[in-house]
Amino acid sequence: MIRNRSMSRAVFLDRDGTIIAEKNYLHRVDQVEIFPGAGAALGSLCRAGYKLFIVSNQSGIGRGYFTLADVEKVNEYLLGELARQGAHFEAIYIAPEAPGAPSRGRKPSPQFLLDARDQYGLDLARSFMIGDKLIDLECGWSAGVNTCLLVRTGYGAELERSSPDQLKRAVVVDDLAAAARWIHNHQASSG
Question: Which of 8, 27, 52, 162 is deepest in the core (most CB within 10 A)?
């Protein structure tokens, strides 16, 4: 199959546990702890031509623990900090529903990746998903991305220990910096 090279490549990222430290229902700017090397890694992906997107389940909204405005403040702060290192995001997709509630985009649903594909002209077969949970990987696999990468930050190391059979299709790396290196190396080897 010949791919349309004019379509953009993307990297989809989970937020909590992948870009920033996992905190119990994080909803304040003072709780944000960006993983070391994350900004530089994301900046390098932007410079390589990838469009960046965050896809995040934020069930604390649906559970009534915090508001969408709280999440937007955190995201605005995060994007500002990452932009200092050349990382620019096209969009952030948030699923605010509690688990079990009807949801169009709550991961593992691939809907937000499909929406981004349509809105931004993305080639999902040349794109990647990075996360620390199985639902992140399932979201990417269902959308047809090239490769899903599990980071050992957040819940990733525990998932790797407890469910290695479920990760056979994934690439497992230490952190976001290692994920970016893997993507760069994959790009170089695949032309």
Answer: 52
* 80 to 34, 40, 59, 93: CA distances (angstroms): 12, 13, 24, 17
136 part of the active site: no
List per-block mean pLDDT (blocks of 10 residues) for the chain, which spans 191 residues.
68 98 96 98 98 98 97 98 98 96 97 98 98 98 98 98 96 98 89 57
pTM: 0.95
Query: Which residue, among 139, 133, 150, 130, has the nearest Cα to 107 in the 3D structure?
Result: 139
Both structure tokens of 178? 């290692």
The pLDDT score that the predictor gives to residue 2 is 39
Look up residue 30 and give its two tokens. 């003072």
Catalytic residue among 14, 123, 136, 175: 14
Query: 132 catalytic, yes or no?
Result: no
The helix, strand and coil proportions of the chain, stated in percent and rounded to the nearest 5, come to 45, 20, 40
SS3 label, residue 172:
strand
Q: Which residue do the tokens 């990075």 mark?
A: 130
Q: What is the DSSP letter of 42?
A: H
3-state secondary structure of 47: helix
